[in-house]
Task: structure prediction
Amino acid sequence: MGIRLCELAEGWAKYWSTPAAPFWWRAAPPMAGPWPTPAERADVVVIGAGFTGLSAALVLARAGRQVVVVDAGAPGVGASTRNGGQVGSGNQKVRVKTLIQMKGERKAVELLREGIEMLDGLEALTQRERIDCSFTRCGRFRGAMRPEHYENMARDMEDLRRYVGVESCMITRSEQHSEIGSDLFYGGSLLPNDASLHPGKYHAGLLDRVVQAGAAVHGGAPVRGITSEGAQHTLHFDGFEIQAKDVLVATNGYTKNVGAYFKKRIVPIRSAQLATETIPAQLIDQLMPRRRVYGNSNRVFFYFRPAPDENRLIWGGRANHFTGDTVLAAYSHLARDVLRTFPELRDVRVSYAWSGLIGYTFDEFPHLGRTPAGIHYAMGYCGTGVSRSTHFGRKIALQMLGETEGRSAFDELTFPTHMFHAVARPAVPAVETWYRARDFTGL
Result:
């Protein structure tokens, strides 16, 4: 049956029987093994069978390369089938004016334009490959948690329109019930061309096209290390090895055992989501009348949407001091945020709850390129990975093929590490607690 949102929010039980698996797996379960041992040699080994790795593998296999894709678990079992299915234009985590101050106007405009290319490219891919994943340009409403947030958002929307022509509008607090049935926000911004999809079905469709293109995909194959000698790379697994001319690391928040270069640059952060039982159509139409994707303006933000073609609510945010998928404390704060926004849902039950890792970088930009050892990579999506990962996978594959079309505005960005990188991972809960306190106080 699942626990009611009010019970989850108030901590009435330590454990509950809600399935600790993504809602998306119901319609698109992960591919099951057993998996045969991969070939001993390949032109390219792609580490990670998520959106990035599959997008790259599709380009490489269709170009005639012998491609082996490996994943520590079932293909796509990580963030690619655990995310919220919200598809943005890949805009940066900072305001346009801040981006210009950081990178200069010319580079900032290049980065923003490529963000638009990411969204358009994903739509084109789903249409060209005929991937049935409920892709729709539903639009995104982002609620302002404070009046000053609304003013800042309005200026940022003006800058987006001025510099790159992104269509947007501001929704005042008196008008916001046309967008959302909540009094929590002080108005908000609307990006009508942002989109949504079913991430499980999108991954399944992409995986199918990769296999059809001739790539070999193997789950249950965690990499234990990589040895590079000149132009040759040896990947070490449990009981076997693969030699390859090229290697692509496409593991994002699940990066492990692929070298110190990546360990110093990627910080995994856990995000959690829940899905409710079916909600009466009249009520969900009242709460989300336009059936868009939604978020808010806090530093530690939450995000939500209706399920594709169903009257369920999908709600996500940072996992609160995460200790396990079946532990109440991991999800109770999500329920509290739901009820702050939609108190009408207090008696609605939670049907699914799950979590996954996102890959954060120290500069909050995604990165692609090649390490000094000759290992290619694409990662660091900082929580906005659906469009970014698909785009970066394609771009890095084109670069590996030597195609000029592979050029990206992100090529010239230095992939930074930090002097305190060793303590970054354990420090995440403390940093998030500090951010939550600042969100609460408005500082």
Remarks:
- The CA atoms of residues 230 and 373 lie 8 Å apart.
- The first strand starts at residue 41 and ends at 47.
- The longest helix spans residues 105-128.
